[in-house]
Amino acid sequence: DVVLTQSPLSLPVTLGQPASISCRSSQGLVSSDGNTYFHWFHQRPGQSPRRLIYMVSNRDSGVPDRFSGSGSGTDFTLKISRVEAEDLGVYYCMQHTHWPFTFGQGTKLEIK
Amino acid sequence: EVQLVESGGGLVRPGESLRLSCVASGFTFKNFWMNWVRQTPGKGLEWVAHIIPDGTVTFHVDSVKGRFAISRDNARNSVYLQMNNLGPEDTAVYYCVPWGHDVYWGQGILATVSS
Questions:
Q1: Distance from C-alpha of A63 to C-alpha of A68, rounded to nearest angstrom
Q2: Predicted confidence band of residue B42 (pLDDT cuts 50, 70, 90)
Q3: How many CB atoms lie within 10 A of CB B112?
Q4: Chain B contact present for A49, CB below 8 A
Q5: N or C terminus of chain A with fewer C-beta within 10 Å?
Q6: Residues A9-50: pLDDT tens digits?
Q7: Which tens digit of pLDDT belongs to each residue from A64-73?
Q8: Cα dihedral A36/B36/B23/B57 (nearest 10)
Q9: Quick check: B47 and A101 CB within 8 A?
Q10: Angle at CA B26, nearest 5°, toward B23 and B31?
Q11: B102–A60 CB contact, under 8 Å
Q12: Inter-chain contact A51–B47, Cβ cutoff 8 Å?
Protein backbone atom coordinates (compact mmCIF):
# COMPACT_ATOMS: atom_id res chain seq x y z
CA ASP A 1 0.00 0.00 0.00
CA VAL A 2 1.09 3.58 -0.62
CA VAL A 3 2.04 5.27 2.64
CA LEU A 4 1.60 9.02 2.82
CA THR A 5 3.67 10.68 5.53
CA GLN A 6 2.69 14.20 6.56
CA SER A 7 4.79 16.69 8.44
CA PRO A 8 4.42 18.30 10.79
CA LEU A 9 1.62 16.48 12.59
CA SER A 10 0.87 19.57 14.66
CA LEU A 11 1.21 23.09 13.34
CA PRO A 12 0.70 26.00 15.71
CA VAL A 13 0.21 29.19 13.71
CA THR A 14 -0.44 32.86 14.26
CA LEU A 15 -3.44 34.26 12.43
CA GLY A 16 -2.33 36.17 9.37
CA GLN A 17 0.91 34.22 9.06
CA PRO A 18 1.72 31.61 6.40
CA ALA A 19 1.62 27.86 6.95
CA SER A 20 2.99 24.91 5.04
CA ILE A 21 2.31 21.17 5.24
CA SER A 22 4.38 18.50 3.56
CA CYS A 23 3.27 15.08 2.35
CA ARG A 24 5.69 12.44 1.15
CA SER A 25 4.57 9.31 -0.67
CA SER A 26 6.24 5.90 -0.45
CA GLN A 27 5.69 5.46 -4.18
CA GLY A 28 5.45 7.70 -7.20
CA LEU A 29 1.91 8.90 -7.83
CA VAL A 30 1.95 9.41 -11.58
CA SER A 31 -0.71 7.19 -13.09
CA SER A 32 -0.38 5.26 -16.33
CA ASP A 33 -2.54 7.95 -17.94
CA GLY A 34 0.01 10.60 -16.97
CA ASN A 35 -2.10 12.19 -14.26
CA THR A 36 -1.14 12.52 -10.59
CA TYR A 37 -4.16 11.70 -8.46
CA PHE A 38 -3.08 13.51 -5.32
CA HIS A 39 -5.39 15.71 -3.26
CA TRP A 40 -5.68 17.69 -0.05
CA PHE A 41 -8.64 17.63 2.33
CA HIS A 42 -9.58 19.77 5.31
CA GLN A 43 -11.70 18.69 8.24
CA ARG A 44 -13.03 21.16 10.77
CA PRO A 45 -13.94 19.89 14.25
CA GLY A 46 -17.25 18.05 14.18
CA GLN A 47 -17.54 18.21 10.39
CA SER A 48 -16.93 15.87 7.48
CA PRO A 49 -13.77 16.33 5.43
CA ARG A 50 -13.89 18.60 2.42
CA ARG A 51 -11.56 18.51 -0.57
CA LEU A 52 -9.52 21.68 -1.07
CA ILE A 53 -7.04 20.80 -3.78
CA TYR A 54 -7.28 18.16 -6.49
CA MET A 55 -4.66 16.76 -8.84
CA VAL A 56 -1.81 18.37 -6.88
CA SER A 57 -2.51 22.04 -7.53
CA ASN A 58 -6.12 22.73 -8.54
CA ARG A 59 -8.39 24.48 -6.07
CA ASP A 60 -11.90 23.16 -5.65
CA SER A 61 -14.82 25.50 -6.17
CA GLY A 62 -15.15 28.01 -3.37
CA VAL A 63 -11.68 27.45 -1.95
CA PRO A 64 -9.93 30.75 -1.24
CA ASP A 65 -6.86 31.55 -3.30
CA ARG A 66 -4.73 31.73 -0.16
CA PHE A 67 -4.56 27.93 -0.49
CA SER A 68 -2.11 26.47 -2.98
CA GLY A 69 -0.80 23.01 -3.71
CA SER A 70 2.41 21.98 -5.40
CA GLY A 71 4.74 19.07 -5.87
CA SER A 72 5.46 16.11 -8.08
CA GLY A 73 6.52 12.49 -7.94
CA THR A 74 6.61 11.68 -4.24
CA ASP A 75 6.79 15.10 -2.55
CA PHE A 76 3.87 17.47 -2.21
CA THR A 77 3.12 20.64 -0.29
CA LEU A 78 0.04 22.56 0.80
CA LYS A 79 0.56 26.25 1.55
CA ILE A 80 -1.70 28.78 3.16
CA SER A 81 -0.49 32.29 2.48
CA ARG A 82 -2.24 33.92 5.46
CA VAL A 83 -4.00 31.72 7.97
CA GLU A 84 -7.52 32.71 8.98
CA ALA A 85 -9.56 31.38 11.88
CA GLU A 86 -11.75 29.26 9.59
CA ASP A 87 -8.65 27.36 8.41
CA LEU A 88 -8.19 25.59 11.72
CA GLY A 89 -8.69 21.86 11.86
CA VAL A 90 -6.96 18.84 10.38
CA TYR A 91 -5.48 18.63 6.89
CA TYR A 92 -5.09 15.30 5.08
CA CYS A 93 -3.27 14.43 1.91
CA MET A 94 -4.71 11.59 -0.13
CA GLN A 95 -3.85 9.60 -3.25
CA HIS A 96 -6.02 7.63 -5.61
CA THR A 97 -3.43 6.61 -8.15
CA HIS A 98 -2.92 3.19 -6.55
CA TRP A 99 -5.50 0.92 -4.89
CA PRO A 100 -6.07 0.97 -1.99
CA PHE A 101 -6.50 4.72 -1.98
CA THR A 102 -4.78 6.10 1.09
CA PHE A 103 -4.68 9.16 3.31
CA GLY A 104 -1.91 10.75 5.27
CA GLN A 105 -2.20 10.68 9.04
CA GLY A 106 -3.33 14.29 9.24
CA THR A 107 -1.82 17.62 10.32
CA LYS A 108 -3.62 19.57 12.99
CA LEU A 109 -3.52 23.32 12.38
CA GLU A 110 -4.12 25.24 15.58
CA ILE A 111 -3.73 28.72 16.93
CA LYS A 112 -0.42 29.52 18.61
CA GLU B 1 -28.08 21.14 -3.32
CA VAL B 2 -26.24 17.87 -2.78
CA GLN B 3 -27.71 15.65 -0.10
CA LEU B 4 -26.35 12.34 1.14
CA VAL B 5 -28.53 10.54 3.65
CA GLU B 6 -26.70 7.70 5.35
CA SER B 7 -28.44 5.10 7.46
CA GLY B 8 -28.01 1.63 8.90
CA GLY B 9 -25.40 2.21 11.57
CA GLY B 10 -25.70 1.21 15.18
CA LEU B 11 -24.36 -1.01 17.93
CA VAL B 12 -23.79 -4.69 17.19
CA ARG B 13 -21.85 -7.54 18.76
CA PRO B 14 -18.73 -9.08 17.23
CA GLY B 15 -19.62 -11.46 14.42
CA GLU B 16 -22.86 -9.69 13.58
CA SER B 17 -23.76 -7.73 10.45
CA LEU B 18 -24.82 -4.25 9.42
CA ARG B 19 -25.93 -2.84 6.09
CA LEU B 20 -25.18 0.81 5.49
CA SER B 21 -27.19 2.77 2.94
CA CYS B 22 -26.63 6.14 1.34
CA VAL B 23 -29.31 7.86 -0.71
CA ALA B 24 -28.04 10.70 -2.86
CA SER B 25 -29.62 13.68 -4.52
CA GLY B 26 -28.56 16.94 -6.11
CA PHE B 27 -26.10 15.50 -8.63
CA THR B 28 -26.06 12.94 -11.45
CA PHE B 29 -25.51 9.85 -9.33
CA LYS B 30 -24.98 7.41 -12.22
CA ASN B 31 -21.89 9.35 -13.34
CA PHE B 32 -20.06 9.20 -10.05
CA TRP B 33 -17.74 6.64 -8.55
CA MET B 34 -19.14 5.83 -5.13
CA ASN B 35 -17.07 5.12 -2.08
CA TRP B 36 -17.23 4.31 1.59
CA VAL B 37 -14.53 5.83 3.77
CA ARG B 38 -14.27 5.27 7.51
CA GLN B 39 -12.68 7.29 10.27
CA THR B 40 -11.47 6.29 13.69
CA PRO B 41 -9.53 8.30 16.25
CA GLY B 42 -6.75 5.74 16.19
CA LYS B 43 -6.37 4.91 12.50
CA GLY B 44 -7.52 8.15 10.92
CA LEU B 45 -9.19 7.99 7.52
CA GLU B 46 -9.36 4.67 5.67
CA TRP B 47 -10.79 4.10 2.20
CA VAL B 48 -12.93 1.00 2.62
CA ALA B 49 -14.59 0.33 -0.73
CA HIS B 50 -15.09 1.77 -4.17
CA ILE B 51 -17.52 1.03 -7.01
CA ILE B 52 -17.45 2.36 -10.55
CA PRO B 53 -20.46 4.18 -12.07
CA ASP B 54 -22.08 1.17 -13.75
CA GLY B 55 -21.52 -1.04 -10.72
CA THR B 56 -19.62 -3.75 -12.55
CA VAL B 57 -16.29 -3.27 -10.78
CA THR B 58 -15.63 -2.96 -7.07
CA PHE B 59 -12.58 -2.67 -4.86
CA HIS B 60 -12.32 -3.41 -1.15
CA VAL B 61 -9.40 -2.74 1.16
CA ASP B 62 -7.70 -5.93 2.31
CA SER B 63 -8.85 -5.54 5.92
CA VAL B 64 -12.49 -5.96 4.87
CA LYS B 65 -12.16 -8.19 1.81
CA GLY B 66 -14.44 -11.18 2.07
CA ARG B 67 -16.50 -9.55 4.83
CA PHE B 68 -17.77 -6.29 3.31
CA ALA B 69 -19.42 -5.72 -0.07
CA ILE B 70 -20.19 -2.43 -1.76
CA SER B 71 -23.07 -2.25 -4.23
CA ARG B 72 -25.19 0.42 -5.88
CA ASP B 73 -28.61 0.94 -7.40
CA ASN B 74 -28.49 3.75 -9.94
CA ALA B 75 -32.28 3.70 -10.30
CA ARG B 76 -32.56 4.53 -6.59
CA ASN B 77 -29.53 6.84 -6.43
CA SER B 78 -28.25 4.62 -3.66
CA VAL B 79 -25.06 2.93 -2.57
CA TYR B 80 -24.78 0.24 0.06
CA LEU B 81 -22.14 -1.39 2.22
CA GLN B 82 -22.97 -4.85 3.50
CA MET B 83 -20.74 -5.52 6.50
CA ASN B 84 -20.57 -9.10 7.78
CA ASN B 85 -18.58 -10.76 10.56
CA LEU B 86 -17.90 -7.41 12.18
CA GLY B 87 -15.12 -7.00 14.71
CA PRO B 88 -14.22 -4.26 17.19
CA GLU B 89 -11.67 -2.95 14.67
CA ASP B 90 -14.55 -2.02 12.36
CA THR B 91 -15.91 0.49 14.86
CA ALA B 92 -15.82 3.81 13.03
CA VAL B 93 -17.73 6.64 11.48
CA TYR B 94 -18.51 5.59 7.91
CA TYR B 95 -18.81 8.21 5.20
CA CYS B 96 -20.51 7.91 1.83
CA VAL B 97 -18.26 9.74 -0.67
CA PRO B 98 -19.34 10.34 -4.26
CA TRP B 99 -16.35 11.07 -6.46
CA GLY B 100 -16.52 12.76 -9.84
CA HIS B 101 -15.07 16.08 -10.93
CA ASP B 102 -16.48 17.21 -7.59
CA VAL B 103 -16.26 15.26 -4.36
CA TYR B 104 -18.93 15.20 -1.69
CA TRP B 105 -18.99 13.74 1.80
CA GLY B 106 -21.96 12.54 3.77
CA GLN B 107 -22.40 13.50 7.41
CA GLY B 108 -21.11 10.09 8.48
CA ILE B 109 -22.78 7.29 10.36
CA LEU B 110 -21.42 5.52 13.40
CA ALA B 111 -21.04 1.77 13.50
CA THR B 112 -20.01 0.37 16.86
CA VAL B 113 -18.96 -3.23 17.37
CA SER B 114 -18.74 -4.24 20.99
CA SER B 115 -19.68 -7.11 23.24
A1: 10
A2: confident
A3: 15
A4: yes
A5: C
A6: 999 999 999 999 999 999 999 999 999 999 999 999 999 999
A7: 999 999 999 9
A8: 70
A9: yes
A10: 80
A11: yes
A12: no
